Amino acid sequence: MKYLIRSDQGGLSGLGYVVMFAPLGFVLLMGFGFNKLSSTALTGIFLLYSMIMGISLSFIFLAYTQSSIFQVFFISAAMFGVMALTGYTTKTDLTKLGSLMFMALIGIIIAALVNFFLKSDTLSYVISFISVIVFTGLTAYDVQKLKNIGAGVEGGSESAAKLSIMGALTLYLDFINLFLALLRIFGNRRS
Q1: b or e along 34-50 (b: 16 or more beta carbons within 10 Å of the residue's beta carbon)?
Q2: Angle at Cα 168 formed by Cα 131 and Cα 80, nearest 5°?
Q3: Share of the chain above pLDDT 70, in %
Q4: What pLDDT is stored for residue 12 in this prediction?
Q5: What is the DSSP string of 65-117?
Q6: Can you tell me the distance from the alpha carbon of 21 to that of 29, in angstroms, rounded to the nearest whole number?
Q7: What beta strand segments (E) does the chain contain?
Q8: Per the count of CB atoms within 10 A, which of 16, 48, 82, 148 is most buried?
Q9: 8 A C-beta contact, residue 98 and residue 146
Q10: Which helix (H) or strand (E) covers residue 174, if one does?
Q11: What average pLDDT does this structure show over 55-64?
């Protein structure tokens, strides 16, 4: 697998770039095609996205020890579960928190792009810590948002089906990003 994704010169191969950027393409397709695509089409794209994302994330088994992956996965799942429950049960409106977290997410993306060229381990570490905070907050916000949207949508309708798929995508992204940030902080790299 490693040789399919990496070229002989050590950089990414053509397939490596496809695997790396395809998940982003699927997310954009789902977001921009939400009004035009049927719920069946969105479900198919989401399933395909999940498969490609699994392939894309397989690199972590090459970079980190299995025990650290499992430990970080369970920590991520616990944090995600607690924040989802908090977002679902709290009476506090988390809209302002969501806006702040979204602005911080834009900052993370910009910082990650800058660090792509700088290749600073310190900046990468700082980005990971901020990412944990942001995706923890976004989990609570997104669950509350989905709860509020669900209360206003007629169950069983095409609109409800499409919104549930997009909600699943949102929470999936929150979890994956939380997991990856925690893995960068606490994961033990293979030697």
Answers
A1: eeebebeebbebbeebe
A2: 40
A3: 90
A4: 53
A5: -HHHHHHHHHHHHHHHHHHHHHHHH--S--HHHHHHHHHHHHHHHHHHHHHHH
A6: 13
A7: none
A8: 16
A9: no
A10: helix 158-186
A11: 86
Helix (H), strand (E) at residue 14: helix 14-32
Q: Which residues pair with 12 in a beta bridge?
A: 6
Among all chains, which residue has been given the structure tokens 């060229």? 117
Rounded CA separation 156/108 (Å) = 37
Q: Which pTM was predicted?
A: 0.87
CA angle 191, 19, 103 (to 5 degrees): 90
Gap between the Cα atoms of 18 and 138, Å rounded: 28
Report residue 157 as tokens.
């309708």
For residues 137 and 95, the answer to whether their CB atoms sit within 8 Å is no
Taking only the tens place, the pLDDT of each residue in 154-170 is 877 888 899 999 999 99
139 to 104, 151, 158, 185: CA distances (angstroms): 14, 18, 25, 19
Q: What does the block give as tokens for 18?
A: 């496809």
**Helix or strand or coil: residue 35?**
coil
> Please, are residues 32 and 42 in contact by the beta-carbon 8 Å criterion?
no
pLDDT at residue 117 is higher than 70: yes
For helices 66-89 and 121-151, the axis angle rounded to 10 degrees is 40
Whether the Cβ atoms of residue 145 and residue 99 lie closer than 8 Å to each other: no
